[in-house]
Amino acid sequence: MDETRDxxxxxxxxxxxxxxxxxxxxxxxxxxxESADVSTDSMDAAAxxxxxxxxxxxxxxxxxxxxxxxxxxxLEQQIEGLKKDIxxxxxxxxxxxxxxxxxxxxxxxMGMPQLNPEWFPSQLFWLTACFIVxxxxxxxxxxxxIQNVLEYRxxxxxxxxxxxxxxxxxxEDVQQGYEKAMIEARDxxxxxxADAQSAIxxxxxxxxxxxxxxxxxxxxxxxxSIAKAKQAAYKEVAPVATELAGTIVEQLVxxxxxxxxxxxxxxxxxxxxx
Length: 274
Fold this sequence. Notes:
mainly alpha, 5 helices
């Protein structure tokens, strides 16, 4: 019964816990709500790793089942061979017993008891009985339980693979939504920047136009002030220039020029210079 519990349990299958899961598969098959905050790249990588581990476990289990089936077939062949050997030995024993019926009685007391032909029938009987009981015990109890455990774990692994595929699909959906949101955000940012740039350009054009008008007004005022200052300066300088010109002409030609002609000449010259 202890051997039955060991085979029936999960201790003989390393890497599995009592529920039939591996520790890695249990973590992969029980996602929490926090997985929605994990980056899509890490989610995709974790799902892919879990799928690869589960596929390796399935291959290992299939290999174990094939080995177990091979062992069962080999055991059946050995039992058939033992049956044939038993039949052969039984025929040999019957032949020897028939040929030794006339031998001296002392010869039966010689040698080991296991080699005494008198014990051969009982030994063969118990040998056959033990092999039959062992065969029935293995074929009816142990092997079916092992197959049930393997089938149960195979179904659980298939469920884990399906769940991993679902998680992978969800991760791909999340990634697509993230990419779509990024594209929309980029488009919105581009439109916002374009609107802001247009508003800035319009405002700058208005500011430059106002500044140009203000500068033009100030330039006109400055030119008017300069013209007025020139006229005032001309009025102040004209008498002095007229007097100085008359003095110079009188010294050169020894003739005093007319005052109106000097005024006209000085005014014309100042207008020409100005």
